[in-house]
Each structure stands twice: as structure tokens, then as C-alpha cells.
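agent> step 3/5: call structure_predict on target 'Nicotinate phosphoribosyltransferase' (Algoriphagus formosus).
agent> reason: downstream docking stage needs a structural representation; sequence fetched in step 2, passing through unchanged.
tool.input:
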Amino acid sequence: MKITKDLYTGSLALLTDFYQLTMAYAYWKAGKGDQEAVFNLFFRKHPFNGGFTVAAGLEYVVDYCRNFRFEKKDLDYLKEMKAPDGSPQFEKGFLDYLSEMRFSCDIEAVEEGTIVFPNAPMLRVKGPLIQCQLLETPLLNILNFQTLIATKAARITLAAKGEPVLEFGLRRAQGIDGALAASRAAFIGGCTSTSNVMAGRLFGIPVSGTHAHSWIMSFETELEAFEAYADAFPDQSVFLVDTYDTIQGVKNAIKVGEKLRSMGKELIGIRIDSGDLAYFSNQARELLDQAGFPNAKIVASNDLDEYLISSLKTQEASINVWGVGTKLVTAFDQPALGAVYKLSGIKSPEGEWIPKIKVSQQSLKINIPGIHNVRRYYSAGKAVADMIYLEGQEVDSKGTVIIDPIDATRRKRIMPAFYQSEELLKPIFEKGKKVYKCPDIQSIRKRTQDQLKTFDKTHKRLVNPHVYPVGLEENLHHLRMDLVLKAKEIEDESN
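tool.output (status=ok):
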């Protein structure tokens, strides 16, 4: 995938918040621009009040970082910027620094399709402070949205219980970029196809679609419209039956299906886009079966989401395929994931890594200091807990306690010797060189499905899911608390 080649021209370095550039300039002025730092990208709460989140967007991150540079047109724009007193906003020396800067960071990240949890890093950036800082906004922009949509898609496909979910939200998506990223993320989350043809070309996603009500309305009769469509697509005939009268629409579809069968073809199915979907799907199923079309699919659409699909399942609706648009690609009930990007360590002039912490009145907003990773433990193929630990810190194989980063009373004892384990952060870039091969999108989608199978069904409930245990290894917990108390002491002394 080459997003910049197909959608953009040149650098995207200015796709950032202005304060990232002002901080970068101030770092440069202070002589700190090349000081090494480490930042972690994570989120604090599952979206949709759910029990899991699906990581997505890493391939965009790889593409962005490989092309990260300031081109002449970027620098010319920055050169023209003025401070309030009319002087140049940025000195020439700083612009020269940016012109020569090339991406040289280390990046570790969880692979796309991985199930992730609050407070654990999804991505870690280590390298020159200016570069790490300038990457904050674009990385959050990419991962926040695609992770949100992939998670929504996973919830919807779980509600569909293995039946195909078609994504067709292009017309309701948040602009061109939003539509393309949403189609990609929805497929990663579990959708089987998209209506977005450009997404199909760019990402290799299967495309699907039939016809709209306008097709029916352009003919004198519904039957004539169905016949004309069947003539054009004898092997792909799925008829939208609710333009005028749904039951009569099903009967007309059956008539055309009988003509198709006489030619050695078969009616693929019908689509219902309005009304009482449970009632009309059951009526349609009865008519199709009586007419000898038990294999004809019934596709449902009309503002579906995981809750409505679950309800229709409970009502025993005769729906085989689900078409989901607006509620999926806009993440209708939660428009943002809220992931953040925080400094967790900085290297001293003597070469020592100094852990950094942000202290807040809200425990939820106190970050995790130091250079850490995430280890997932499995028992008989089932995920049992995630441990956030300091890299280089030995974990006692006889047992350790993981401590919830928000509520220290929530603890779980882990016996590593009895479990299999996996490190979730994988090397993506080393000193700016890509060392990770992005898998194809079909493999990413399969990873999502495989990952979901490793978690107990209670963690995947749509409402009130059971909380999966994620905690800090004891040494990291104590380091964090010591830094919090030290920061409080300094604050008290200053007052």
C-alpha cells in the first residue's frame, strides 16, 4: 500500500498541530532537539463501553514515517509565518535544521488486528526529541480513527454471529480520507466487503453492491426493472424489494428468479432497506422457500449497528447478510477513541534514561513512566492477563503480581512458568529503517478473528463486559508511585 502515491502529492509533514512546531523550535533553541526521548501512544478507556479494542492503522503509520520530511514548499510556508511583533516565527537556522532532518526513530507497535486494552502502549517511539514530538499529532490522527472503526466493525460482526457484514458507508463517511480509512479499518474488524471501489483498489478489499431505489424508479414497473437488472447481471442478481411494497417486491423477485432458473442461472437474493426488518424478512423467507428458493439470501440494511442486529437475532429475523453504513463508518455512538501520546522517558547527557511522569488530580491521567512493553499470557490458547513491565526488568518465573494502573486494589497473581506468553510490541523501525513487513489486509483481518477467539466470550459482551485483567508488574508499579510521590513533594515545597 502506498497511500501517499495514490492520494497525496509530496510531504505530509505539516499535517500536525501548530504547537508541535513551536515546541520543536523551542527544543532546538534550547539545544535539546537531538536529545533522545521515548513516547508511548495509548488509550484510557475502551470505546462503545466495550470490553476490547482492535488495533488498526499501523500500515498508514509506516507509510507516513517512511515519507516523513520537510520539503521546500513546507519550509517556504513556515518561512513566511510571522510572530505577533511581525518578525519571522522561526529562525532560518531552525528551518535549515528541518530541511536536513531525516526520520531516524525506533518504533515498536502492536500489530494490526491485535486486541488491545487501556493504558497499555499500542505504539512506542524512541529517538530525537524533535522527531518524536513532531510525530505525535499524525500518529494519533491515524491510529485513533482506524482503531475506533475496526473495533466498531468487530462488535458488529460479533453481533452477526458469523453471517457476512457488508460495509457501505462511503456516502455518509467524514470526507474522502475518512471514507477510505473507514473502509480499510472495517474490513480489518471483520466486514467481508466494501461498497467503496477506491478502497477496493487501494487496499485489496472485496467490493460488493447491487442497485438503488433509483434503478427501480427509472422503469415503468418494478418487475421490468428487476428483469433488466437480471439481464445485465444474471449471475449476481440481488433485488432491492422495498421501493413500493415489500411483499409484492419479493413476489416480483421470485418471478424473475424463475426466469433466471430457466436459463440455468440462480437468484442470489433480495435486499430489504426499510420497515420492520424482522417481520418482512420472515415473510420474505416464507415466500422464497415456498417458491423453491431456499438458498436465496436476504440482505438487510437501514441504519444497522451491533445493538439492532443483536435485537433482530433475538427476534429470529430471517436475515443472512447485513449491510451496515452510517453507524459503522462514523462510529455513530462514539466519534473519537481518545488515544494520547505521552513522554515517558528522556536520556540524560550522561546517557542514562530518566523515567518521566505526568501527575494529575485524576488517577486516570497519570501516565506510566519508563521504557516498557506489554506481555500477554495464555493458558491452553486462551488469553488470561496482560502485564505492562519495564524492559530489561527480569520477571520472577515463580510468580509476580500485576496491579491495575487505575485501581491499585485490583491485583492478579501471575505464574509465568505455567503460561505461554507473547510480547505485544514488535519492532517496526530501527534508527529510521523499516524492519517490519506489513502483512496483506486479508492476513490482518484473519489476525483479528484469531485474536478474538483467544478471549473469553464474557469480555466480548456488547453490554457490561467482564473486565480483562491488565496490570503493571510490581517493580513498574512501585517506580510509578515513587515518582508520583516525589512530584507531589516538589509541588508542596514550591508552594
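agent> step 4/5: record observation. The first helix runs from residue 3 to 7.
agent> proceeding.
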